[in-house]
Specification:
Two copies of one chain form a homodimer. Chain A is an alpha/beta fold. Chain A has four domains: 294 residues, 3-Layer(aba) Sandwich (Rossmann fold); 157 residues, Succinyl-CoA synthetase domains (Rossmann fold); 77 residues, ATP-grasp fold, A domain (Dna Ligase, domain 1), CATH 3.30.1490.20; 119 residues, 2-Layer Sandwich (D-amino Acid Aminotransferase, Chain A, domain 1), CATH 3.30.470. The first copy, chain A, has 22 helices and 32 strands. In chain A, the strands form six sheets. Chain A has a seven-stranded mixed sheet with strand order 3-4-2-1-5-6-7, sandwiched between helices. In chain A, helix 1 packs across helix 6 and helix 3 packs parallel to helix 4. Chain A is flat, with a radius of gyration of 32 Å.
């Protein structure tokens, strides 16, 4: 629709040559007053025009009664004016040829149906003039890298706008301001921070795309309440990954309550959370729970982009704190580094032999407070080959004022750079007693945290990045007979398919099923059972019956002709009683495949991200071993193995108590099902919606077998 | 050994009439200098005597060359002197008749074998003079309630010693000092704080006992690295529970690494962690991960001792923060309160209809910044009947400077008391921008946190208190034939018992087992199978074979005479091959009991806490559904149900997918096994050590049955 490509508008927004502040004033209790003041006080180098109906200057800046009469056309207009006045202002900006407008004002789609109509109106006014919008219901843009502050947050009242290498795009404005304030205090800084609000026009991904290409940004952080375009998100994530630029995200809506809250906030719909998380894992977007730990991890990653973290060395002046830290680290799935003999020998110059180990209780040293003992300890530990990262948990100690600076100096990568040789997190568990120590770190360009748990959360999220896989390259199994394009005739059409038909589709994709034949009467059932070999299973075959067990339509453990006859009669009786309307086609006689584990393998077409395959424990355990794995279809076999590895049932595949299940078979089944899913989703002309359930996939020690399945295919609704 | 009962010595330590500071100086860089200064500057009202070989006064206090020549016998002596001088000082104190000495000095049992010898020496010197010791390797005692500071921590350099109602006993000194510093900054305060160090003489429980009886202490907090006397701990916990005084604990050693770190720190052995946690649950000791959240919860409990917390109302000026908070709350097992219609109607005066709900985005209000909108919102929410507690997550907002005070004032229980009507936690996500707001809360005697996760951790720990059960009152089942005393002849003696003998012992305690008979040959096996009815199981019976499956000694699913014969021969062949030395007594023919679930029920004599019963999922799932429940023996049936309820397998007992297992039978089995365990542990003269495994207990829909078991009984080693 628009002819202004987002890239150009975003470039302009992030570094405008001129800015008009609509509704500017001098009153610092008002948004319009702060907008103007912040732009001035943080050193904006472009042309500022204040729009105010009655004043000639404001805070020394020339003011104009209307945007029509500014001396030049402003690149960007920013407005925090009452909601009823926004439409007129947007019309004026559009008429004047402004490239992009930022609407701080709230009460649009976030405030109900009437606001939503107004929101659509201003977007269409803007589009018709090739103007782009940020917001509404946002807090604008802060760009320390460009010294551009188009943001009225009170967090910017304080002096100074430290420049960092972390770019941050947030769907919440207040959160951006809050994090900005806290970040400055603990030594975290940004290249750019953008609040996108309701995303009526420009959205989170537009700014992420900018940050991927931005040389001032080393790591991208995002706060997400709902994605406007999930597939674009996935594509950009792949691009960021390929560019080697880490992307981190906090996304509310992990829980039902959070999703509901996010919806009331910016009218975002969370979608299927588990699929979103699966896509993030596949595309290496690191999810965290807290914005502050996200910014902290991003800052560490900017210094150590290639480092993988799992083995942690802890040191602390308090043995108690060190023990608590060790607990937190191991509880978070990290592990305490095991120092080499060389490290222990070096530490033994300063510590008693039993304490020359991880964690290092620097309070327990045997030598005095030489100027450098703790720094030297840190240096020794940083050289340890088993140590990926250091955690310095700082408690009260007589040398508190300088102990952190000593460590920072000891660990410098080289004299010219404050960057440490190995990642280190500084945590102050103390209160203001340590403020001198905190200042020492800030002066050295190092950040710190004030809470052990935060530091461990940072390390745990960092650790999770280590298990990301190389990009998947799914290969169609050679004996999968179909390809998506032009073979509609070979794929199931719309409809609901029972066990028999679904087995056929699965069979065409090479999924192994147990042998079965349809019996029309008892005698035939006995004859088939004899051919298949005992034990067998009997199941009712009826198009009208979906849940066969629920109507008494399944009998297992049939070891003899007599048992088959008895079971046949019972099934017919049960079904006539519980499903009198169903037409019984006969009874399916099946070889009884005895697995050690029942699994479930399903596939469907996710509304946001397309075809996916889902797999995990089945049977009675289905919700108890609740974790389920999700991969996009078609799936890469290595990814499937990696996902199985995270499930509680994994030990059964690895060899456990004499059980070692058929991993290759399960992976093969999941991959084949994923190709069927991908082909269905791609089926011309528009793809199909579908739900496929292989339940159960029986898994034994050296084989596995789908013993029941169902498929439902429908038209795609998007 | 000692004739000074701990209670008297502890009373004296906590409020001494006179104190000698051994090694006192004026140098504030030295421990002895700070010890003297802190005592003076925090308003100690007793008699201070400085011990210094060369000075007549120190900081205006009379000094004496030796403790022999002080004008009165000091109640308490405190020393932070070089380790080689400690023995002489203890001898002098003992000779002088000092009631108790505090040894700050480290490098005793914490520093190796030589230090451990010295530690034993000073304890025996003290005991022979009826003197008690605190430490060594501690940071002494801080009692704001009594204005007694016997602690050299730099955390006390700052002015002020706020008095709270939380008593804290810590095995780590630096941790105590650190928490003290942080606590003061965020509005938390103590009645007393005691650091017990190596616990060479007086130990954590001595001071907990004091706090249980102390009227100035409403809630007890402890940092534990290892218990000197676990049974005393359990007894005191029961006493605190009966006294209605909450007891909270952080205990390092949750993980292997933490336990190792705690051991290096104060030479404490963690023992079996799971048993410790089970005892804490039974006796209502609340375990937390972080000392700060422990003190925060304790402070809230002091205001709201009877409140149970699970339904939380959140409000925040940031919708994003509110959504994140909702996620954290639900992830922590709490739940977001569902406001009543009345609450929503009242909120709708201030918020758009879609936002008049939980969480409340106070930034989204439709009215201006009236002085009282947020306070009024809090008041409305506090009146909501579904809301147990409030969480105010504070972000940047134009009214930041006063918004927290507004809320605190609005929620006052009555005009004279700052205590709120309902529990509320204030969290500042901002940095220093909110310092005015923080001061407002401190002036009102309210504490705050600076991290959302901490607040949620406090609420989650509070919530966990709600699931504590009333004290157990185990009743011996009427048909349990034995009682412990005087019936040694009826209990198994020392030895290892195979399946057959263990079944007998279980049978005497009324545990249901499946029918079985011993067959000496194939024909007999077929005959027995015919009598028991098919299907049957065959198991090798041999005293020499413990793991029957491992030698191919078990065959299941035998449905016919032919299958029994075949299985008989295969078992004999397998056993001869895999265990050629074993004497085969015959084969046990058993009815095959088909359960839906295999459980394991075990019992043993825990070295720390005595007889316990352990139960959970068995079979292949034993480590996958890893959670196991532990109860002390004999066990109360209601406790057993409550413990089962926490296990992942619980849905199977509650009714799940057509499965509803025999809960009453499982509980009955666990209780009966627990009585056998209790009787074994109590067996005269000294009790027995033992390990009993019922594995598996097969559980079906309406019954359950022990189908295999083993027992090992030994002499008690303690």
């Amino acid at each position: 629709m628009s002819t202004v490509v987002p890239e150009r508008a975003v470039q302009t927004l992030m570094n405008p040559a001129s800015v008009a502040v609509i509704g500017a004033s001098e009153d610092q209790h008002k948004y319009g007053g702060r907008l103007l003041k912040m732009l001035l006080s943080h050193g904006y180098r472009g042309h500022i025009m204040a729009i105010n109906p009655v004043r000639e200057t404001l805070l020394g800046v020339s003011a104009y009664p209307h945007i029509d009469v500014t001396p030049v056309v402003p690149d960007v207009a920013v407005m925090a004016i009452p909601q009823p006045k926004v439409r007129e202002a947007i019309e004026a900006c559009a008429a004047r040829g402004v490239t992009a407008a930022i609407v701080i004002t709230a009460r649009f789609s976030d405030g109900g149906a009437e606001g939503a109509v107004l929101e659509r109106d201003i977007v269409s006014i803007a589009r018709s003039a090739n103007m782009r919008l940020v917001g509404p219901n946002c807090l604008g843009i802060i760009s320390p890298a460009h010294r551009v502050v188009l943001c009225p947050s009170t967090a910017l009242v304080a002096e100074g706008l430290p420049v960092g290498r972390v770019g941050f795009v947030s769907q919440s404005g207040a959160l951006m301001g809050t994090i900005f304030d806290k970040a400055k205090e603990i030594g975290l800084a940004f290249s750019h921070a953008i609040s996108v609000g309701n995303q009526a026009d420009l959205e989170l991904c537009d700014f992420v795309e900018y940050l991927i290409g931005d040389p001032a940004t080393a790591v991208i952080c995002t706060y997400i309440e709902g994605l406007k375009d999930p597939r674009r998100f996935a594509e950009l994530a792949a691009r960021a990954r390929e560019a080697g630029k880490p992307w981190l995200a906090v996304s509310s809506g992990r829980t039902q309550a959070g999703a509901q809250a996010a919806f009331s906030h910016t009218a975002s719909v969370a979608g299927d959370r588990a699929v979103f998380e699966a896509v993030c894992r596949e595309e290496h977007v690191t999810l965290l729970d807290s914005p502050l730990t996200m910014i902290a991890l991003a800052t560490s990653l900017a210094d150590h982009p290639a480092t993988q973290v799992s083995r942690i060395a802890v040191f602390s002046p308090s043995g108690g704190e060190a023990a608590i830290a060790a607990d937190e680290i191991e509880s978070a799935g990290l592990r305490m580094a095991v120092f080499s003999d060389a490290t222990r020998t070096k530490l033994a110059d300063y510590y008693p032999p039993s304490q020359a180990a991880n964690p290092v209780d620097t309070g327990g040293r045997t030598v005095g407070d030489g100027p450098d003992v703790v720094g030297e300890s840190a240096r020794i530990v940083a050289d340890d080959p088993d140590t990926d990262a250091l955690l310095f948990a700082i408690t009260t100690t007589p040398t508190l004022h300088r102990v952190a600076s000593d460590v920072a100096d000891a660990l410098r990568r080289d004299p010219a750079s404050p960057t440490p040789r190995k990642p280190i997190l500084y945590v102050f568990e103390t209160g203001r007693l340590a403020d001198t120590a905190r200042r020492g770190l800030l002066e050295r360009g190092r950040y710190f945290l004030n809470n052990l748990r935060e530091a461990v959360d940072v390390l745990a999220a960092w650790h999770s990045r280590g298990s990301y896989l190389p990009p998947g390259r799914p290969v169609r199994p050679a004996d999968c007979p179909l390809t998506a394009a032009g073979c509609a005739a070979h794929l199931p059409g719309k409809g609901t398919y029972g066990e028999g038909a679904t087995r056929e589709w699965l069979g065409r994709y090479g999924v192994r099923t147990n042998e079965e034949r349809l019996a029309r009467d008892e005698d035939e059932a006995v004859a088939i059972a004899g051919e298949l070999g005992y034990p067998v299973v009997l199941k009712v075959a009826s198009a009208g019956i979906v849940h066969k067990s629920d109507v008494g339509g399944v009998k297992v453990d049939l070891y003899s002709d007599a048992m088959v006859r008895d079971a046949y009669r019972r099934i017919v009786t049960n079904v006539r009683e519980h499903a009198p309307a169903a037409v019984i086609d006969g009874l399916s006689v099946q070889t009884q495949f005895k697995g050690r584990l029942e699994m479930i393998v399903g596939a469907r077409c996710d509304a946001a991200f397309g075809p996916i395959v889902v797999f995990g424990a089945g049977g009675v355990l289905v919700d108890i071993l609740a974790a389920r794995a999700i991969a996009r279809a078609p799936a890469d076999p290595d990814h499937v193995i990696a996902l199985l590895r995270r499930l509680p049932l994994w030990p059964l595949f690895e060899g456990y108590r004499g059980v070692r299940l058929d991993l290759a078979g399960v992976v093969d089944t999941v991959v084949r099902v994923s190709w069927l899913a991908a082909d269905l989703a791609a089926r011309q002309p528009a793809g199909l919606d579908f739900e496929l359930d292989v339940n159960p996939l029986m898994v034994a020690d050296d084989t596995c077998c789908a013993v029941d399945a169902r498929l439902r295919v429908a038209a795609r609704s998007d």
